Amino acid sequence: MDLVPALEEPLRKVLGPATAKVMAEHLGLHTVGDLLHHYPRRYEERGQLTHLADLPMDEHVTVVAQVADARLHTFASARAPRGKGQRLEVTITDGSGRLQLVFFGKGVHKPHKELLPGTRAMFAGKVSVFNRRLQLAHPAYELLRSDAEETVETWAGALIPIYPATAKLESWKIGKALQTVLPSAQEAVDPLPDSLREGRGLVPLPEALLKIHRPHTKADIEDARARLKWDEAFVLQVALARRRHADAQLPAVARRPTPDGLLAAFDDRLPFTLTEGQQKVSKEIFDDLATEHPMHRLLQGEVGSGKTMVALRAMLAVVDAGGQAAMLAPTEVLAQQHHRSVTEMMGELAEGGMLGGADNATKVVLLTGSMGAAARRQALLDLATGEAGIVIGTHALIEDKVQFHDLGLVVVDEQHRFGVEQRDALRGKGKQPPHLLVMTATPIPRTVAMTVFGDLETSVLDQLPAGRSPIASHVVPAADKPHFLARAWERVREEVAKGHQAYVVCPRIGDEAEEAKARKSPEDEAEKRPPLAVLDVADQLGKGPLDGLRVEVLHGRMPPDDKDAVMRRFAAGETDVLVATTVIEVGVNVPNATAMVIMDADRFGVSQLHQLRGRVGRGSAPGLCLLVTEMPEASAARRRLDAVASTLDGFELSRLDLEQRREGDVLGQAQSGTRSSLRMLAVIEDEEIIAEARQEAAAVVAADPELERLPGLRTALQALLDEEREQFLEKG
Prior knowledge:
The chain is of the alpha/beta class. A seven-stranded parallel beta sheet has the order 11-12-10-13-14-9-15, sandwiched between helices. A six-stranded parallel beta sheet has the order 16-21-20-17-19-18, with helices on both faces. The protein has a five-stranded mixed beta barrel with strand order 2-3-4-6-5.
């Protein structure tokens, strides 16, 4: 983060080319500064041992334990037919459990001499299962001799740092490399302003780096962590504050709706009144649109809270004011769906320039990558001349060929599929920067919103519109209670008999290329069957429990026209059951669909399950969501599903999701680069630090936008943004 000359020294000069190569390829560490910021994941105390009972499968682990016994066996094999094959089995213990280590062939001699009962050592390897017992095959190990001078020095007193490691580089080798570069920590330039650091009682950066890698007490670790968390939160928030500051300097055209224009005509047509939440959020948006700086707003709303309605009214206000509005969707299915629902909601107001169109109507065009050449030419022409006030499309809208007459507002649906760069590319299409509204149906805890979308103001829609029905969710344990699964299919038939429709969701499509990939996954080798596939399940259901019903399939690899045709038939009620992958996760709106069965539900994330469930109960009849799993009752996967079944509150579930996945995944997906550079900060636990850092950052940037008085902070920021740019180039 805060790289200065001593810390910019390439690792190959300090550690030699072989070690440096492994660090670069497997851990992404290139310089002394990178290595100093590779923090221990946890610490082992010499007197205490790791919990062998809790080891995760298929992960690379480091454990500190004592040898209980060691036995050498001989056996016959193809290579050693005369019973000369050798296998060393070592049992280690930590008080909580036992773990078997196995060494074969010539590899048995050294451990046989060294791993005697009573010996303590660190062991590293990949956890696997053999004969239903956990084992490490050929683990690397480092003996812990309390008498040897070198070890006592290296392991710095009683606390042994355990680093995030790889099969190619064990934790203790990383520890030794750190001993080599640790003196350079003295030259780390502090990014925090002195007043902030002293005011909050934080230790200086060089001291924090020494204490995180060579703590003598637990208090040292606490001091270091508190300080390093602040660094991450603060530097990130300064980057976001500077982005907000720069955006606020940009000019934009104020867009105010005309009193008796398109928006007023649209509101008169509405068969219902807007919820209080929709009215409040619309006011926030209209206030932003009326200013001469570009709006940057994030609109969060539960599935079905009416975000599209709020966005459409904002687009109509901009068209009223003489501008154009573009809505960007992550997939073609969703773009077509939005186009259909917007034109239906607007009626003759969407038929500008056509017979039967209203006087103040505009044209609503669709633009996607797979359109025919003639339709595409016409759409591009309508945009360039201003004939079309509203365009709805996919990434195709960002292409160079697309020219707007006067782009006033960009609405981005499902932000987590779009990086900052795409937002910027679309923004560049206006004569002046257009206003920006980002919508997401994935509820985001406040701290993540501050971290990931810190350059946007946030509006939340938390009421469901009148007429939306509650959704009952249940876990169906297919392995323990197969009759529950049979009952699930009966429930689907009952819903269809009432004139409703149902979804069945599967994790996989099930074509040949994918089958081959699926067979290779390590999970499947661990005695797990491959995830259920749409094509297989549809076939089995059609011939079995749903025989006689109209069953169709939908997945991402179908040609766009076929996908659209399937969706149209389903929306028109010509299909009873749609067996699909997660392509239906966002935005698909069929009010008559009341039941959803999610197969292998344990293979989906919490937020994804919540998104999927939001596809039912969109009309006046109550919704039903059945989560089918074969996982045993005591498993973490089952606990996760029980949590989803027990609440419809998306914000509560998104916190749970974050606690279970690492933030890096969430933040890394959410935007390019920077966000996954959080090493110390835990977004949920460190809510207060993030909120305080945001305030401090805003104050610092307001007083000194160019950070001229804070060279250390400027350096740290450049390092953070270089990383972001690097990631962007890699993605590009």
